[in-house]
Design a protein that fits this description.
The protein is of the alpha+beta class. About 35% of the residues lie in helices and about 30% in strands.
């Protein structure tokens, strides 16, 4: 009797295994994979289309507008440097926090702006240790790293080491994917072009 039960059990297992290998089971698994792939592709296309419709940031009239804030470049001037044999370009800007939480102005600046002079990337500058910068310049630089409450506005500055004889500084503005604008800043001037 054990031999009969064992034989029947073996036959049932074999039939189940063979049923899993039929073309309809394979087609079903393949069909599920294709449906899943189509769903992912569709979601990716929708995400890309939504991203194209809503730009991350815009730049016009020396003003960057992003979802978390705005930066309006208000001027620039050459200032003393903490580094020997260097000068710095101090770029002043008005920052408005348009998010719902505190933001640090320099975070938005460094995310969207790149400074170059004579084709070379510029390095951020530092306040002069000799005290040659005005209190206003010092306040503007300090404001760049101080959190700003939601809905608030502050005057801020960015600073770059420059070569006074290498010509103007170009600020290239990008939105994370592409360049969205440029502005040229003249050395020893108080206005941006």
């Amino acid at each position: 009797m054990n031999k009969i039960v064992s034989s029947l059990l073996a036959a049932a297992i074999s039939a189940t295994v063979l049923a899993g290998c039929t073309p309809s089971a394979k087609n079903s698994a393949s069909s599920q994979r294709q449906t899943s792939s189509k769903k992912v592709a569709s979601e990716s296309t929708q995400s890309t289309q939504a991203h194209k419709k809503a730009p991350v940031a815009t730049f016009a009239n020396n003003t960057l507008t992003a979802s978390t804030g705005t930066i309006k470049i208000t001027g620039q001037r050459q200032v003393a440097s903490a580094f020997p044999n260097h000068q710095q370009l101090l770029i002043t800007y008005d920052y408005s926090n348009q998010s719902t939480k505190q933001q640090v102005p320099s975070d938005l600046w460094s995310k969207h702006f790149k400074a170059t002079q004579d084709g070379k990337n510029l390095v951020s500058g530092s306040l002069s240790l000799s005290g040659q910068n005005s209190d206003s310049d010092n306040d503007d630089i300090n404001n760049s790293v101080t959190p700003v409450d939601a809905g608030q506005h502050v005057t801020v500055a960015a600073m770059y080491k420059i070569s006074p004889s290498a010509g103007p500084v170009t600020l290239t503005v990008h939105d994370g994917q592409k360049n969205i604008g440029t502005t040229t800043l003249t050395i020893n001037a108080n206005e941006s072009n």
